[in-house]
C-alpha cells in the first residue's frame, strides 16, 4: 500500500499535540511508572525463584532417595544370592569354573552390577566374575573387610556399604556392598562383595529437568560420600561454587531401610543468575516505553512541512524498492525452477546408473558361475570368493537404487540381507547365523562399501573355516552403537578358534583363517573406512573367535582414512 494512503488514515490529533512542556511531563510520568512496575515484578520474581528452587530440591531429593533405595535393595538381593552360592559354614569356598559361571550369570542378569567377589578369612580373593582364574591380591586392610571381620556396629547388621574410587577395571567410581559368608558361631569364614556401578542412579539424575545447576550426593551415616554428581546448565560453575563454600539451597532425604542419606543442593548463585537474566526483560520493557514516548514527542514537535517532504522521499523509495523486489522475485523463481529441474534430472540419472551397475554386476556373477563350472576345485574356490565379493557390492547397489537417498544406505538393513544370503550360499556345515542390528545406521556409500566387504569376509570366513570337523555351530553378528555417534560391528563364533600366537598362525600356510587373503583384505578395508579391527581369541587357542570392528563417527573416520 502506498505511504500516502497509510498516512491519510492517521489521526490528525498527532499534529495538534501540546508544546514541549507537556511532552516532557508525559515522558517523565511514563518513565516513573515503567520503573516502578519493573522493580515490583523483579522483586516478586526473585522470591518466586527462591521458592521454586527450594521446592525443586525437595522433590528431587525424594526421587533420588527412592531410586537409591531400589538400587540398594536389588543389589543386596544379588549379594544374598552370592552368599547362598558360597555354601554352608563348613563347605569350601567355590573357586572352580562351574562356580565362576554361576556367579557370572548373576552379573549378566543385572545391568548395573559390575562384579562379584568372594574373599577368604585372610582377605585373599577366591573368586571374582571379573576374570577367571582369580587374580592375586589382598583386601585385609579395606574398610569393608575389617568391618565385616570385626562384626561391630559399623557393619550395619550384616550389610556394609562403602565407595571405591579409581577402579582399574571399570574406570569409574563404584558402590560396594558386602556381607559376611555363612560361618560357624565365633568364626569368620570370609566376605562376599558386589561392586555396583552408579550409572543407574546417575542416569536418573541426568533425566531431571532442572532450570538450575545442582549437586546430588549420596552419603553414608558416618558422612562417607558414596556418590557425588554435579549436573545442570552451569555444572562447572556449580562445582566451583560448592568448593568455595557459597550458600546453597539444599534438601536432605533419608533412604529407606539403609543408613544412607540423599542430598540435593542448588547454589543460590545459580538461582540468582537465572533471576538476573530475567531482569533484562523488564529493562527491555522500560527502554521500549522510553523509546515510544520519545518517538511520540518527536512526532508532536515536527513540522508539517518536513513531514511531507520525508513522506514524498519515502514514497519514492517505496516505489523503487517494490519494483526491484518484484524483479528479484521473478529471477529467483526462475532460478529455483531450473535448480529443481537439474536436481530431479541428476537423481533420475543416478538411479539409472545404480540400476545399470547392479545389472552389470549380476551379469558378471552369472559369467563367473558359468566359468566356475568348467574349472577344478581349487580354482573354483577362488572364483566363489570373487563371486561372493561381487554379490556383496551388487546387493549394495540394489539397496542404493531402492533408497530415498541415492548416496546413503541403511547399513543395518544391508547387514541383515547380506547375512541371509551368505548363510544360504556359504554354509557347508549348516551353522546357525544370528544377526542383532536393532537400530538403523545411515552411511554414505564411500564408508559403507569397505564395511560391507569387511562384514562379508568375516561372516563367510566363519561359516567356512570355524567348524573344520563338520559339526554345526553358531555364528553371531552384532551392530551396536558405541559412543555418541559411532558403531561397533562384532562377528563371533564358537568354532575351532584361532591359535594363541598370531605370528605362528601366519607362518602356517594351512591356517586359512589367519594367513589367507581374507584377513589382509579386512585390514586394508578397515583402514580405508577409518575403522579399527580387533581379534579376540582364547589364550590357549580354545574354541571361539571374536572379530570387533570399531567404526567412529563419520568425521573421525574420514580423518583416519586420510
TrEMBL record:
The chain crosses the membrane at residues 279-301. Residues 352-555 form the Histidine kinase domain. Its EC number is 2.7.13.3. InterPro entries: HATPase_C_sf, HATPase_dom, His_kinase_dom, Sig_transdc_His_kin-like_C, Sig_transdc_His_kin_sub2_dim/P. It is an enzyme of class 2 (transferase). SUPFAM superfamilies: ATPase domain of HSP90 chaperone/DNA topoisomerase II/histidine kinase (SSF55874). This is histidine kinase. It comes from Azospirillum himalayense.
Amino acid at each position: 500500500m502506498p505511504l500516502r494512503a497509510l498516512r491519510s488514515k492517521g489521526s490528525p490529533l498527532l499534529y495538534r499535540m501540546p508544546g514541549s512542556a507537556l511532552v516532557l511531563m508525559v515522558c517523565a510520568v511514563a518513565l516513573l511508572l515503567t520503573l516502578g512496575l519493573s522493580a515490583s515484578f523483579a522483586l516478586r520474581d526473585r522470591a518466586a525463584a527462591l521458592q521454586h528452587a527450594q521446592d525443586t530440591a525437595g522433590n528431587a531429593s525424594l526421587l533420588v532417595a527412592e531410586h537409591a533405595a531400589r538400587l540398594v535393595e536389588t543389589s543386596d538381593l544379588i549379594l544374598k544370592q552370592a552368599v547362598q552360592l558360597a555354601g554352608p559354614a563348613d563347605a569350601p569356598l567355590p573357586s572352580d569354573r562351574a562356580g565362576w559361571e554361576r556367579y557370572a550369570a548373576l552379573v549378566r542378569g543385572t545391568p548395573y552390577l559390575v562384579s562379584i567377589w568372594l574373599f577368604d578369612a585372610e582377605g585373599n580373593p577366591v573368586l571374582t566374575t571379573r576374570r577367571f582364574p582369580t587374580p592375586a591380591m589382598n583386601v585385609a586392610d579395606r574398610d569393608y573387610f575389617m568391618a565385616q571381620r570385626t562384626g561391630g556396629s559399623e557393619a550395619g547388621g550384616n550389610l556394609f556399604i562403602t565407595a571405591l574410587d579409581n577402579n582399574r577395571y571399570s574406570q569409574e567410581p563404584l558402590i560396594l556392598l558386602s556381607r559376611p559368608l555363612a560361618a560357624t558361631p565365633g568364626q569368620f569364614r570370609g566376605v562376599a562383595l558386589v561392586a555396583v556401578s552408579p550409572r543407574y542412579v546417575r542416569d536418573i539424575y541426568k533425566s531431571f529437568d532442572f532450570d538450575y545447576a545442582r549437586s546430588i550426593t549420596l552419603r553414608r551415616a558416618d558422612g562417607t560420600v558414596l556418590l557425588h554428581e554435579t549436573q545442570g546448565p552451569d555444572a562447572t560453575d556449580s562445582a566451583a561454587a560448592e568448593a568455595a563454600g557459597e550458600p546453597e539451597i539444599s534438601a536432605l532425604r533419608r533412604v529407606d531401610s539403609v543408613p544412607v542419606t540423599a542430598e540435593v543442593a542448588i547454589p543460590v548463585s545459580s538461582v540468582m543468575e537465572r533471576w538476573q537474566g530475567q531482569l533484562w526483560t523488564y529493562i527491555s520493557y522500560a527502554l521500549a516505553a522510553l523509546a515510544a514516548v520519545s518517538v511520540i514527542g518527536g512526532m508532536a514537535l515536527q513540522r508539517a512541512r518536513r513531514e511531507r517532504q520525508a513522506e514524498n522521499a519515502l514514497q519514492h523509495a517505496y516505489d523503487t524498492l517494490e519494483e526491484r523486489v518484484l524483479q528479484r522475485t521473478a529471477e529467483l523463481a526462475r532460478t529455483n525452477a531450473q535448480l529443481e529441474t537439474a536436481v530431479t534430472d541428476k537423481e533420475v540419472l543416478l538411479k539409472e546408473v545404480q540400476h545399470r551397475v547392479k545389472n552389470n554386476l549380476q551379469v558378471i556373477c552369472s559369467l563367473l558361475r558359468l566359468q566356475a563350472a568348467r574349472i577344478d576345485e581349487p580354482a573354483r574356490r577362488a572364483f566363489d570368493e570373487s563371486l561372493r565379493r561381487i554379490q556383496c557390492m551388487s546387493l549394495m547397489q540394489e539397496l542404493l537404487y531402492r533408497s530415498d537417498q541415492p548416496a546413503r544406505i541403511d547399513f543395518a538393513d544391508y547387514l541383515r540381507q547380506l547375512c541371509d544370503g551368505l548363510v544360504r550360499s556359504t554354509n557347508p556345515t549348516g551353522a546357525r547365523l544370528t544377526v542383532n542390528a536393532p537400530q538403523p545406521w545411515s552411511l554414505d556409500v564411500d564408508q559403507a562399501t569397505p564395511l560391507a566387504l569387511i562384514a562379508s569376509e568375516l561372516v563367510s570366513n566363519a561359516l567356512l573355516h570355524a567348524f573344520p570337523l563338520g559339526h554345526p555351530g553358531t555364528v553371531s553378528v552384532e551392530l551396536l552403537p558405541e559412543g555418541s555417534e559411532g558403531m561397533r560391528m562384532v562377528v563371533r563364533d564358537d568354532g575351532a578358534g584361532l591359535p594363541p600366537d598370531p605370528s605362528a598362525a601366519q607362518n602356517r600356510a594351512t591356517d586359512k583363517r589367519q594367513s589367507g587373503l581374507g584377513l589382509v583384505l579386512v585390514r586394508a578395508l578397515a583402514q580405508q573406512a577409518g575403522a579399527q579391527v580387533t581379534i579376540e581369541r582364547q589364550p590357549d587357542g580354545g574354541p571361539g573367535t571374536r572379530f570387533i570392528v570399531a567404526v567412529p563417527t563419520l568425521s573421525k573416520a574420514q580423518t583416519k582414512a586420510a
